[in-house]
Amino acid sequence: MTTSSSAEGPGTSVQLPHNLAAAGQEIDIELRRKPGKPMEMSPSAGDALEDAYADFMTDLGREAIRLARNDGLSTVDPSHVEKAVGRLGMGSSGSSPRGFVLTTTGGLLTGFAGNGAFSLTFDSAARSTAEITTTLVLLVVGVIALTAGLLLTAVRIQK
């Protein structure tokens, strides 16, 4: 990435990208990916994209600075930027496939168990032992999977 122009303002030392042509080319390729149905980006969508880019860069820079400060450093290193990208939910460093699967599965199982528990509690019909046992097993397994997924995600974020 070529950097040549600095941010406006007194005493700024941050260098901004001079040319975002590669990103523009990727967006253009995606817009024209289906030859029979090419798409266009409206001027207002382009403005919104620029605004989102500016907001993301601000958040990313602030998070990288915070991480460097937490490490007791006076210089932000590339590793801080990579960690910041992960913390902001972008890139591979921010997601754990196992954590995602466990959290999703745990949430679903816990939801099914909650539905069963609601039915057991507020429906006056007689319930079989198998139905009660299934509800309890779903609840226990769901809570364990949900907790494990959240812990994996938290540990990955801390790295």
Description:
This protein is mostly helical and 159 residues long. It folds into 2 domains: 3-92, Histone, subunit A (Orthogonal Bundle); 97-158. The protein is 66% helix and 4% strand. It has helices at residues 21-31, 43-70, 78-87, 97-122, 129-158, and strands spanning 3-6, 15-17. A two-stranded antiparallel ribbon has the order 1-2. A hairpin with an 8-residue loop joins β1 and β2 (15-17). α2 (43-70) packs across α3. The radius of gyration is 24 Å and the shape is flat. The two termini are 26 Å apart.
How would you describe this structure in keywords?
2 strands, 2 domains, mainly alpha, 159 residues, disordered N terminus, Histone, subunit A, two-stranded antiparallel ribbon
TL;DR of this structure?
It contains 5 helices and 2 strands.
Mind sketching the topology for me?
Layout: E1 3-6, E2 15-17, H1 21-31, H2 43-70, H3 78-87, H4 97-122, H5 129-158
Antiparallel strand pairs: 1-2
Helix pairs in contact: 2-3, 4-5
Describe the biggest sheet? Answer: 2 strands, antiparallel
> What portion of residues is helical?
55-70%
- Count of discrete structural domains: 2
Average pLDDT value? 82
Number of helices: 5
| Uncertain regions spanning at least 5 consecutive residues | 1-9
Distance between the termini: 26 Å
The assigned CATH architecture of the largest domain is Orthogonal Bundle
Class by SSE composition: mainly alpha
Strand percentage lies at under 5%
Number of strands: 2
Helix and strand succession? EEHHHHH
Shape, per Cα inertia axes: flat
Highest-level CATH class of the largest domain: Mainly Alpha
CATH homologous superfamily classification of the largest domain = Histone, subunit A
Strands side by side in the biggest sheet? 1-2
Stated plainly, the CATH topology of the largest domain is called Histone, subunit A
Radius of gyration: 24 Å
